Amino acid sequence: MSADKILHGGSDLDPFAGELPRLSDALSRRINTDPEGLERGLAQLVLTIIELLRQLMERQALRRIDGGSLSEEQVERLGRTFMELDKRMEQLREEFGLTEEDLNLDLGPLGRLL
Amino acid sequence: VIELYAIAAHPGPPLPEPLHEVRAGELAAICAPAEEREITPEALWHHEQIVEALMEDRDLLPVRFGTRLDDDAAAARSLAERHAELERALERVRGAVELAVRAVLAEPGEDAAPEGDSGADYLRVKRRASAAHEAVAAAVHAPLAALARAHAERPPRPPEVLRAAYLVDRGAVGTFARHVARLDERHPELRLLCTGPWPPYSFADR
Protein backbone atom coordinates (compact mmCIF):
# COMPACT_ATOMS: atom_id res chain seq x y z
CA MET A 1 0.00 0.00 0.00
CA SER A 2 1.42 3.37 -0.86
CA ALA A 3 1.81 5.90 1.89
CA ASP A 4 -0.70 8.32 0.38
CA LYS A 5 -3.44 5.82 1.17
CA ILE A 6 -2.82 6.13 4.87
CA LEU A 7 -5.23 8.74 6.14
CA HIS A 8 -4.40 8.14 9.76
CA GLY A 9 -1.94 5.73 11.30
CA GLY A 10 0.67 7.50 13.36
CA SER A 11 4.31 6.72 12.75
CA ASP A 12 4.48 3.06 13.69
CA LEU A 13 2.56 0.72 11.42
CA ASP A 14 4.15 -2.49 12.63
CA PRO A 15 1.07 -3.67 14.53
CA PHE A 16 -0.82 -3.67 11.25
CA ALA A 17 1.85 -5.19 9.06
CA GLY A 18 0.87 -8.78 9.82
CA GLU A 19 -1.32 -8.73 6.73
CA LEU A 20 1.49 -8.43 4.25
CA PRO A 21 2.92 -11.94 4.27
CA ARG A 22 -0.60 -13.31 4.13
CA LEU A 23 -1.21 -11.78 0.74
CA SER A 24 1.78 -13.34 -0.95
CA ASP A 25 0.96 -16.64 0.79
CA ALA A 26 -2.51 -16.58 -0.64
CA LEU A 27 -1.25 -15.77 -4.11
CA SER A 28 1.43 -18.41 -4.17
CA ARG A 29 -0.78 -21.12 -2.76
CA ARG A 30 -0.84 -24.09 -5.05
CA ILE A 31 -2.06 -27.61 -4.62
CA ASN A 32 0.85 -29.37 -3.08
CA THR A 33 0.95 -33.05 -3.84
CA ASP A 34 4.04 -34.22 -2.03
CA PRO A 35 2.92 -36.58 0.76
CA GLU A 36 4.12 -34.40 3.61
CA GLY A 37 2.47 -31.29 2.20
CA LEU A 38 -0.72 -33.21 1.64
CA GLU A 39 -0.78 -34.47 5.20
CA ARG A 40 -0.19 -30.98 6.54
CA GLY A 41 -2.92 -29.60 4.31
CA LEU A 42 -5.36 -32.20 5.54
CA ALA A 43 -4.41 -31.54 9.15
CA GLN A 44 -4.90 -27.84 8.52
CA LEU A 45 -8.38 -28.40 7.16
CA VAL A 46 -9.45 -30.75 9.96
CA LEU A 47 -8.02 -28.53 12.69
CA THR A 48 -9.69 -25.50 11.14
CA ILE A 49 -13.07 -27.14 11.42
CA ILE A 50 -12.42 -28.28 14.98
CA GLU A 51 -11.27 -24.78 15.89
CA LEU A 52 -14.43 -23.30 14.39
CA LEU A 53 -16.58 -25.65 16.46
CA ARG A 54 -14.53 -24.97 19.56
CA GLN A 55 -15.00 -21.23 19.21
CA LEU A 56 -18.71 -21.56 18.53
CA MET A 57 -19.18 -23.80 21.57
CA GLU A 58 -17.12 -21.51 23.73
CA ARG A 59 -19.21 -18.52 22.70
CA GLN A 60 -22.37 -20.49 23.34
CA ALA A 61 -21.09 -21.50 26.78
CA LEU A 62 -20.32 -17.87 27.66
CA ARG A 63 -23.82 -16.88 26.63
CA ARG A 64 -25.34 -19.58 28.80
CA ILE A 65 -23.27 -18.47 31.77
CA ASP A 66 -24.46 -14.91 31.21
CA GLY A 67 -27.99 -16.22 31.07
CA GLY A 68 -27.46 -17.74 34.52
CA SER A 69 -28.83 -21.12 33.51
CA LEU A 70 -25.79 -23.10 34.64
CA SER A 71 -24.81 -24.25 38.12
CA GLU A 72 -21.35 -23.45 39.47
CA GLU A 73 -20.37 -27.04 39.06
CA GLN A 74 -21.46 -27.07 35.44
CA VAL A 75 -19.55 -23.87 34.76
CA GLU A 76 -16.43 -25.38 36.29
CA ARG A 77 -16.77 -28.52 34.22
CA LEU A 78 -17.37 -26.60 31.00
CA GLY A 79 -14.43 -24.33 31.67
CA ARG A 80 -12.11 -27.29 32.23
CA THR A 81 -13.28 -28.90 29.03
CA PHE A 82 -12.57 -25.78 27.01
CA MET A 83 -9.24 -25.29 28.71
CA GLU A 84 -8.20 -28.84 27.86
CA LEU A 85 -9.41 -28.44 24.29
CA ASP A 86 -7.47 -25.20 23.97
CA LYS A 87 -4.26 -26.88 25.15
CA ARG A 88 -4.79 -29.90 22.95
CA MET A 89 -5.35 -27.70 19.89
CA GLU A 90 -2.14 -25.88 20.62
CA GLN A 91 -0.25 -29.18 20.79
CA LEU A 92 -1.73 -30.38 17.53
CA ARG A 93 -0.95 -27.09 15.84
CA GLU A 94 2.64 -27.34 16.95
CA GLU A 95 2.87 -30.91 15.80
CA PHE A 96 1.89 -29.94 12.27
CA GLY A 97 3.78 -26.65 12.30
CA LEU A 98 0.63 -24.55 11.99
CA THR A 99 0.00 -21.13 13.45
CA GLU A 100 -3.28 -19.82 14.81
CA GLU A 101 -3.73 -17.85 11.62
CA ASP A 102 -3.35 -21.00 9.52
CA LEU A 103 -6.54 -22.30 11.07
CA ASN A 104 -8.67 -19.89 9.17
CA LEU A 105 -10.18 -20.17 5.74
CA ASP A 106 -10.86 -17.39 3.33
CA LEU A 107 -14.41 -17.91 2.16
CA GLY A 108 -14.20 -15.23 -0.50
CA PRO A 109 -17.26 -12.99 -0.36
CA LEU A 110 -18.26 -14.46 3.01
CA GLY A 111 -15.05 -13.26 4.58
CA ARG A 112 -12.88 -15.31 6.86
CA LEU A 113 -14.17 -18.40 8.57
CA LEU A 114 -13.05 -17.44 12.08
CA VAL B 1 -11.23 -12.78 -23.91
CA ILE B 2 -11.72 -9.57 -21.99
CA GLU B 3 -11.01 -8.60 -18.43
CA LEU B 4 -13.50 -6.53 -16.42
CA TYR B 5 -12.42 -3.67 -14.17
CA ALA B 6 -15.52 -1.78 -13.15
CA ILE B 7 -19.16 -1.06 -13.78
CA ALA B 8 -20.02 2.62 -14.19
CA ALA B 9 -22.74 4.85 -15.53
CA HIS B 10 -22.98 5.53 -19.24
CA PRO B 11 -22.07 8.02 -20.60
CA GLY B 12 -18.91 8.68 -18.59
CA PRO B 13 -15.62 10.56 -18.99
CA PRO B 14 -13.30 9.26 -21.75
CA LEU B 15 -11.29 6.13 -21.00
CA PRO B 16 -7.51 5.77 -21.35
CA GLU B 17 -6.15 3.02 -23.64
CA PRO B 18 -6.53 0.03 -23.66
CA LEU B 19 -9.79 0.33 -21.74
CA HIS B 20 -13.11 0.38 -23.52
CA GLU B 21 -16.75 0.47 -22.61
CA VAL B 22 -19.38 -2.18 -23.14
CA ARG B 23 -22.79 -0.62 -22.85
CA ALA B 24 -26.13 -1.89 -21.66
CA GLY B 25 -28.76 0.78 -21.12
CA GLU B 26 -27.45 3.40 -18.72
CA LEU B 27 -24.62 1.17 -17.55
CA ALA B 28 -21.19 0.43 -18.93
CA ALA B 29 -18.73 -2.33 -18.12
CA ILE B 30 -15.18 -1.02 -18.33
CA CYS B 31 -13.01 -3.72 -19.89
CA ALA B 32 -9.70 -4.34 -21.59
CA PRO B 33 -8.39 -7.23 -23.67
CA ALA B 34 -7.20 -9.88 -21.21
CA GLU B 35 -3.52 -10.65 -21.16
CA GLU B 36 -1.82 -13.90 -20.32
CA ARG B 37 -0.33 -13.39 -16.92
CA GLU B 38 0.81 -15.05 -13.77
CA ILE B 39 -1.20 -14.21 -10.70
CA THR B 40 1.25 -12.11 -8.74
CA PRO B 41 0.94 -9.30 -6.22
CA GLU B 42 2.03 -6.97 -9.04
CA ALA B 43 -0.83 -8.10 -11.29
CA LEU B 44 -3.29 -7.52 -8.48
CA TRP B 45 -1.82 -4.13 -7.76
CA HIS B 46 -1.99 -3.21 -11.45
CA HIS B 47 -5.71 -4.06 -11.51
CA GLU B 48 -6.25 -2.01 -8.36
CA GLN B 49 -4.43 0.99 -9.83
CA ILE B 50 -6.60 0.95 -12.94
CA VAL B 51 -9.76 0.88 -10.84
CA GLU B 52 -8.45 3.62 -8.57
CA ALA B 53 -7.59 5.85 -11.54
CA LEU B 54 -11.10 5.34 -12.93
CA MET B 55 -12.56 6.14 -9.54
CA GLU B 56 -11.05 9.63 -9.61
CA ASP B 57 -13.43 10.99 -12.21
CA ARG B 58 -16.46 8.69 -11.97
CA ASP B 59 -18.52 6.62 -9.57
CA LEU B 60 -18.12 2.93 -10.09
CA LEU B 61 -18.63 -0.57 -8.80
CA PRO B 62 -15.23 -2.27 -8.72
CA VAL B 63 -15.12 -5.70 -10.32
CA ARG B 64 -13.25 -8.44 -8.52
CA PHE B 65 -9.71 -9.05 -9.76
CA GLY B 66 -9.56 -11.86 -12.31
CA THR B 67 -13.07 -11.52 -13.71
CA ARG B 68 -12.92 -12.51 -17.39
CA LEU B 69 -15.53 -12.97 -20.07
CA ASP B 70 -15.39 -14.35 -23.60
CA ASP B 71 -16.08 -11.10 -25.42
CA ASP B 72 -17.93 -7.78 -25.40
CA ALA B 73 -21.20 -9.52 -26.22
CA ALA B 74 -20.91 -11.71 -23.13
CA ALA B 75 -20.20 -8.65 -20.99
CA ALA B 76 -23.20 -6.84 -22.45
CA ARG B 77 -25.40 -9.86 -21.75
CA SER B 78 -24.30 -10.16 -18.15
CA LEU B 79 -24.78 -6.41 -17.65
CA ALA B 80 -28.26 -6.60 -19.11
CA GLU B 81 -29.21 -9.57 -16.93
CA ARG B 82 -28.30 -7.76 -13.72
CA HIS B 83 -29.12 -4.27 -14.92
CA ALA B 84 -31.60 -3.29 -12.19
CA GLU B 85 -29.48 -4.72 -9.40
CA LEU B 86 -26.29 -3.05 -10.64
CA GLU B 87 -28.03 0.25 -11.11
CA ARG B 88 -29.24 0.18 -7.52
CA ALA B 89 -25.77 -0.70 -6.29
CA LEU B 90 -24.24 2.14 -8.30
CA GLU B 91 -26.82 4.52 -6.88
CA ARG B 92 -25.83 3.47 -3.36
CA VAL B 93 -22.16 4.31 -3.86
CA ARG B 94 -22.70 7.45 -5.95
CA GLY B 95 -20.45 10.26 -4.75
CA ALA B 96 -18.82 8.12 -2.08
CA VAL B 97 -15.62 6.17 -1.51
CA GLU B 98 -14.64 3.38 0.84
CA LEU B 99 -12.42 3.99 3.86
CA ALA B 100 -11.05 1.14 5.92
CA VAL B 101 -10.42 1.29 9.65
CA ARG B 102 -8.62 -1.22 11.78
CA ALA B 103 -8.02 -1.09 15.51
CA VAL B 104 -5.48 -3.14 17.42
CA LEU B 105 -4.88 -3.17 21.14
CA ALA B 106 -1.90 -1.03 22.05
CA GLU B 107 -0.79 -3.74 24.46
CA PRO B 108 -2.19 -7.10 23.50
CA GLY B 109 -1.85 -9.40 26.44
CA GLU B 110 -4.16 -10.88 28.95
CA ASP B 111 -6.26 -12.49 26.31
CA ALA B 112 -4.33 -15.74 26.50
CA ALA B 113 -5.56 -18.63 28.59
CA PRO B 114 -5.05 -17.94 32.28
CA GLU B 115 -2.70 -20.00 34.40
CA GLY B 116 -4.07 -22.39 36.94
CA ASP B 117 -6.57 -25.15 36.48
CA SER B 118 -9.90 -23.67 37.49
CA GLY B 119 -12.34 -24.10 34.62
CA ALA B 120 -14.59 -21.34 35.93
CA ASP B 121 -11.66 -18.89 36.04
CA TYR B 122 -10.72 -19.81 32.51
CA LEU B 123 -14.18 -18.95 31.24
CA ARG B 124 -14.33 -15.78 33.32
CA VAL B 125 -11.11 -14.48 31.80
CA LYS B 126 -12.31 -15.37 28.33
CA ARG B 127 -15.56 -13.57 28.85
CA ARG B 128 -13.96 -10.50 30.34
CA ALA B 129 -11.54 -10.27 27.42
CA SER B 130 -14.22 -10.65 24.78
CA ALA B 131 -16.51 -8.14 26.48
CA ALA B 132 -13.67 -5.64 26.77
CA HIS B 133 -12.80 -6.02 23.10
CA GLU B 134 -16.38 -5.58 22.05
CA ALA B 135 -16.82 -2.47 24.17
CA VAL B 136 -13.70 -0.84 22.85
CA ALA B 137 -14.56 -1.70 19.26
CA ALA B 138 -18.05 -0.27 19.66
CA ALA B 139 -16.65 2.95 21.15
CA VAL B 140 -14.69 3.50 17.96
CA HIS B 141 -17.13 2.05 15.48
CA ALA B 142 -20.31 3.85 16.53
CA PRO B 143 -19.10 7.44 16.01
CA LEU B 144 -17.47 6.52 12.69
CA ALA B 145 -20.56 4.71 11.46
CA ALA B 146 -22.52 7.88 12.21
CA LEU B 147 -20.28 9.80 9.79
CA ALA B 148 -20.65 7.24 7.04
CA ARG B 149 -23.38 6.51 4.55
CA ALA B 150 -23.01 2.79 5.18
CA HIS B 151 -20.63 0.50 7.00
CA ALA B 152 -19.53 -3.10 6.89
CA GLU B 153 -17.83 -4.88 9.75
CA ARG B 154 -15.59 -7.87 9.22
CA PRO B 155 -14.56 -10.34 11.88
CA PRO B 156 -11.40 -8.87 13.42
CA ARG B 157 -8.28 -11.05 13.38
CA PRO B 158 -6.45 -10.96 16.68
CA PRO B 159 -4.83 -8.77 17.94
CA GLU B 160 -7.31 -6.60 16.04
CA VAL B 161 -10.49 -5.69 17.83
CA LEU B 162 -12.11 -3.87 14.94
CA ARG B 163 -11.97 -4.24 11.18
CA ALA B 164 -14.53 -2.23 9.32
CA ALA B 165 -15.20 -0.45 6.04
CA TYR B 166 -17.13 2.80 5.76
CA LEU B 167 -18.82 4.30 2.74
CA VAL B 168 -18.04 8.01 3.02
CA ASP B 169 -19.03 10.95 0.82
CA ARG B 170 -16.06 12.12 -1.25
CA GLY B 171 -16.26 15.53 0.39
CA ALA B 172 -16.23 14.09 3.89
CA VAL B 173 -13.04 12.02 3.71
CA GLY B 174 -10.96 14.64 5.50
CA THR B 175 -13.50 15.03 8.28
CA PHE B 176 -13.64 11.28 8.70
CA ALA B 177 -9.85 10.96 8.91
CA ARG B 178 -9.65 13.75 11.48
CA HIS B 179 -12.31 12.01 13.51
CA VAL B 180 -10.27 8.80 13.45
CA ALA B 181 -7.28 10.80 14.70
CA ARG B 182 -9.34 12.21 17.56
CA LEU B 183 -10.61 8.76 18.51
CA ASP B 184 -7.06 7.47 18.45
CA GLU B 185 -6.07 10.19 20.92
CA ARG B 186 -9.08 9.52 23.09
CA HIS B 187 -8.35 5.79 23.28
CA PRO B 188 -4.75 5.28 24.37
CA GLU B 189 -5.48 1.56 24.75
CA LEU B 190 -5.94 1.30 20.98
CA ARG B 191 -3.99 1.96 17.84
CA LEU B 192 -6.08 2.98 14.85
CA LEU B 193 -5.26 2.74 11.17
CA CYS B 194 -7.42 4.42 8.55
CA THR B 195 -6.74 3.87 4.86
CA GLY B 196 -8.32 4.95 1.61
CA PRO B 197 -9.96 6.22 -0.42
CA TRP B 198 -10.63 2.79 -1.95
CA PRO B 199 -13.10 1.74 -4.60
CA PRO B 200 -16.26 0.68 -2.75
CA TYR B 201 -15.39 -3.02 -2.71
CA SER B 202 -17.34 -3.71 0.46
CA PHE B 203 -20.47 -1.99 -0.79
CA ALA B 204 -20.67 -3.15 -4.38
CA ASP B 205 -22.88 -6.15 -3.86
CA ARG B 206 -25.18 -5.62 -0.98
Measured between the Cα atoms of the first and last residue of chain A, the distance is 25 Å
Proportion of residues in β-strands of chain B: 25-35%
* Residue share in helix of chain A: 55-70%
Radius of gyration of chain B: 21 Å
Measured by residues with Cβ under 8 Å of the partner chain's Cβ, the largest interface is: A-B, 39 and 37 residues
Number of strands of chain A: 1
Number of distinct helices of chain A: 3
The parts of chain A where pLDDT drops under 50 for at least 5 residues are none
The secondary structure category of chain B is alpha+beta
Main sheet characteristics of chain A: none
Q: Oligomerization state of this entry? A: heterodimer
Count of distinct strands of chain B: 9
- Tell me the overall shape of chain A: flat
In round numbers, the mean pLDDT of chain B is 89
Task: Name the structural class of chain A.
Answer: mainly alpha
Structure description:
The complex is a heterodimer of chains A (114) and B (206). The model of chain A has no long low-confidence stretch (mean pLDDT 76). Chain A has helices at residues 19-28, 35-67, 72-95; one strand spanning 6-8. By secondary structure, chain A is an all-alpha fold. In chain B, strands 1, 2, 3, 4 and 5 form a 5-stranded antiparallel beta sheet that branches. In chain B, strands 7-8-6-9 form a 4-stranded antiparallel beta sheet, with helices on one face. By secondary structure, chain B is an alpha+beta fold. In chain B, 31% of the residues are buried. The longest helix of chain B is centred in the middle third of the chain and has 29 residues, at 119-147. Chain B is elongated. The two termini of chain B are 28 Å apart. Chain A binds chain B through residues 1, 5-10, 12-13, 15-16, 18, 23-24, 27, 58, 61-62, 65-66, 72, 75-83, 86-87, 100-101, 104, 109, 111-112, 114, and chain B through 39-41, 44, 99, 102, 104, 113, 117-123, 126-127, 130, 154-155, 157-159, 173, 176-177, 180-181, 184, 191-196, 198, 205.
